[in-house]
Design goal:
The structure is a homodimer. Chain A has about 350 residues and is an alpha/beta fold. In chain A, about 45% of the residues lie in helices and about 15% in strands. A 6-stranded parallel sheet of chain A has the order 2-1-3-4-5-11, with helices on both faces. The longest helix of chain A is centred in the N-terminal third of the chain and has 17 residues, at about 75-90. The first copy, chain A, is elongated, with a radius of gyration of 26 Å. Chains A and B meet through α4, α5, β2, α6 and α12 of A and α4, α5, β2 and α12 of B. Chain A binds a DNA duplex (30 and 30 nucleotides) through α1, α2 and α4.
Amino acid sequence: MSVTIYDLAREAGVGIGTVSRCLNNHPSVSVETRAKVLEVVKRLSYQPHAYAQRLASKKTNTISAIIPFFTNYFFIQVLQGVQDKAAELGFDLILYGVNNPLQAEYYLRRSLHRGHVDGVMFFSMTLPESYVAKFQQTRLPLVLVDAYHPEFDSISVKNLEGAMMATRHLLKLGHTSIAMINASLSTQPARDRMEGYRAALEEAGLPFRNDRVFVSEIGKQDGFNREAGRASMEDLIGKNVGRDRATAVFIASDVQALGALEGAAELGVRVPEDLAIVSFDDIELAQHAQLTTMRQPMYEMGVLALEKLFARLKNPDAPPSQTTFLPSLIVRRSCGARVPSEQLV
Amino acid sequence: MSVTIYDLAREAGVGIGTVSRCLNNHPSVSVETRAKVLEVVKRLSYQPHAYAQRLASKKTNTISAIIPFFTNYFFIQVLQGVQDKAAELGFDLILYGVNNPLQAEYYLRRSLHRGHVDGVMFFSMTLPESYVAKFQQTRLPLVLVDAYHPEFDSISVKNLEGAMMATRHLLKLGHTSIAMINASLSTQPARDRMEGYRAALEEAGLPFRNDRVFVSEIGKQDGFNREAGRASMEDLIGKNVGRDRATAVFIASDVQALGALEGAAELGVRVPEDLAIVSFDDIELAQHAQLTTMRQPMYEMGVLALEKLFARLKNPDAPPSQTTFLPSLIVRRSCGARVPSEQLV
DNA sequence: AAGAACAGTGGAAGCGCTTCCATGAATATA
DNA sequence: TATATTCATGGAAGCGCTTCCACTGTTCTT
């Protein structure tokens, strides 16, 4: 019923091998033959059968992305990068969106099926230890994004440097008493962001003071949530008295900052007049809440993830390639810097 | 290198046909043989080769979803429904996220490749006329979501009824002078939402007045954007004087409502005290802005989309099945209804 | 007891491609 | 002129499965 290379071969008066070579841009086909075949291809509006190609060539031209839905905006942005690059490289993208680690395992298993995908991208979650061995064994390329494992290609964000940039921005605005609201130090991002905060202070000749760091771990996500941010802010405001009171605060994430904003409003503390805020992530709501924040290059991370996968496909034996991205400062109202209103995106 | 059914057959001392029948739950295999084969399957940790299966069986167990990224929250929610149902039915989902109709065409073409996917889902865009014929010709199942064409299965939202519900809610709160802010009447949703508004008014014995409808088409998306909402609100407030001034407004979309909120704040009009607002969509920001709005059952739409595709696969000759969903009222602060604070989600 | 019906089974054919090897023609080299 | 080299080409083999047909042995029917 549908047109196959046999039909093309018959119609063009050549062999199937030649047809295949034409279609795959093999060099050893004469110009005339190629033209003749391509004419027939067009005339019969031939479409290659994807799975036959894949079975014969042992390549799938398909990759899977296992990515948590709950990251919302990050999800969309990164995915867009992945998708665009996939289109450019001619890959199909199988999306495995998950809501919990259990689902993720199911899809990891599925991705490991022979001949299913050429590679896997795993986002924002910890790779279960049992799959480390499996991926190494099958040598199925795996790229971790917003995650890390020494044995695999990975992409992450320079949290320490980002936190430094955020803190420096507050310093440049003239603040000398800067507090920090952080999430659980059991997480690497929280630790890194605090180190960056500390480094920026010390760079400016200011002391790092433990009593200026407010950590709350209530709620989900190790304290990276609204309620924890609010609790920390209330804690901060309660203690923020006297001559050396903090006039600014660096908050480890936008979601916490949103909670903090609520807490401040409730207690009558004005932002940025009484307290300037810079946070981290640049989620969609950050714009709405006019948060000055550190933006992660989400789209670019998606693009790079696919590039890494592609490179790995070409060269399976290269050592793991780890890339970290530098976040960029997005200035909005919460830090008190004066910006022309049309720049308030 | 990898385990094939030939290995299984040899190891279990049976023929490949029997192995295949075991794997596919064919009835005509004796209980003992099946047990023996399945034991070997487990022992050798056999994984079927997806593409070989697909080539031989002429089924792909894969569907593609062509969906615009710019719908953001809608995108995520619907996708989640699609994905969950796909997982349940054992389908893989190839995601083709697009940013413009041109890209969409590319992916439509790609989806039409022989043996590539079993079906296509097309979201929130108008199906190009040239593809109508192609899909009918190839008989590749196509489901339209948040879109409509008489010849295909589709899922959409009851805009008219939703607008009626929104307006009725304001009526029930005691408002008798209700304005509307709308987007371009060149779009079906805008027309339907206005008709619903009109119907609710007339049902209550109130006149529909053209001077109470404010339309702005500035910006993108036919006026379904922030700036247009703001402009309309400023227009409304400027004219909203005298005894019969409007005390409430139904706004055709949340994004417009967000702009309207800004405009109102700027002009010193309090929401909901001076002006109650109900809008439409329930995007993520609606919660943050405390908008009372009409929620579309996005997740359910995704699920149903896949169910429709599945049904079409089973029964290619059934007449097109069109489903419309009824949106539901989400009460928050912007309408002025008193709700216990813990319900303010 | 002979034949029909049927449950189980093995394996060839075939899905539509890629790739390798063999072949023949054309060209270069001695 | 004889031989080596290169280029273009045809087509068989094979990717790993499903499915169909043919075959065997058993049970049922008359």
